[in-house]
Write the C-alpha cells for this entry.
Amino acid sequence: MVTRGFSLQSCDTLTGAPLVDRRHATLGTVDELLLDLDTGRVVFAILCLGASSGASGRLVAVPWQWLRFDPSSQRFELLRDGALERAPALATDQWPDFSDASWQRRLREHYSHH
C-alpha cells in the first residue's frame, strides 16, 4: 500500500520494478509508464510478463489503477486476478502509436469487460 510520503516516485524507480499477483507470485516487471501529457497522470503501465534471464517476455498495457506500488518492497502488485491471460500483447519490435485515439479506445474497451 502506498503510504503518506511515498506517493511521489521517480519513473526510474518504478520502471523495472517487479510485478506480483495478490498471492505474491512473480508475474514480471513494469517496463514503461504511459503518461497523459494534458493531465500529467499515468494512464497505462506496460508490463513485461514471464521474462527470464536472456529471454524477453510478453508485453501488455494495463490500466494504471490496476496496480499498487509497495515502497517497502519496491514492487507492484496487480490488483485484478486473471486479467492478463487475454490482454492484448504489444509487439516488441513495433510498438503502437500510443497517442492514437483508436488504440486507446480499443484498450479501454478490452479492459472495461474485466
